[in-house]
Design goal:
Belongs to the UPF0754 family. The chain has helices at 2-28, 46-49, 51-66, 69-77, 82-100, 107-143, 146-155, 159-198, and strands spanning 34-36, 41-43. By secondary structure, it is mostly helical.
């Protein structure tokens, strides 16, 4: 009697678990479309089939919501690179002047010449660097198609790697979905068993 009553819930649990397991697998697999003969029908994983559309949407979301141009402009404006560029330029002047000044010139004169050059360049460098930074910022903001860039990067991502990544990150949650399928199948099976036993 108990075996008869538990038979349908156990079968329901197995079916529910397998169904959810297959549903998870079908998100990624098969990677390439498989044609079913005579039915004019093909099977392909959800993400591989919609990969181009997915890449496009991710690019749009990144540009619109995650990193809009206003945010990017704010980040670029906050970059403190001008001083680093100045240090690099003055260091190059130091090095090149040391190489180019003839060796017969005494060292103390060399130091004076190099310091004079560096001071002169340093004094007039700020406006040029400001212009350079503004031009670079404008170029990045106006000529960089962030959505397209992200779309290209995402579309070159191997589906197998994406599957492994998702399974690593969400392994626990996906396992819960499988177990939930088994529990729901078991409960449906109990309902069916009650109906069968009483009618």
């Amino acid at each position: 009697m108990i075996f008869k009553f538990l038979f349908l819930p156990i079968v329901g649990a197995i079916i529910g678990w397998i169904t959810n397991l297959l549903a998870i697998k079908l998100i990624f697999r098969p990677y390439e479309p498989i044609k079913i003969p005579l039915l004019n029908f093909e099977i392909q994983g959800l993400l591989p089939k919609r990969s181009k559309e997915l890449a496009k949407k991710i690019g749009e979301v990144v540009e619109r919501d995650l990193l809009p141009k206003e945010e990017l402009e704010r980040e670029l404006s906050g970059l403190e690179v001008k001083d680093d560029i100045k240090v690099a330029i003055l260091s190059i002047i130091d090095q090149k002047a040391e190489e180019k000044i003839p060796p017969f010139i005494p060292d103390n004169f060399k130091v004076m010449i190099i310091n004079f050059l560096k001071e002169m360049v340093n004094k007039d460098l700020d406006p040029y660097l400001d212009q350079l930074m503004d031009r670079a910022k404008d170029k990045i903001l106006n000529e960089t198609d962030l959505a397209r860039l992200v779309e290209t990067r995402v579309s070159t991502f191997e589906m197998r790697e994406l599957e492994e990544l998702v399974l690593q990150i969400a392994a626990k949650e996906l396992k819960h979905i499988e177990v939930l399928g088994a529990i729901l199948g078991f409960l449906v099976g109990i309902g069916q068993a009650v109906i069968v036993m009483n009618f």
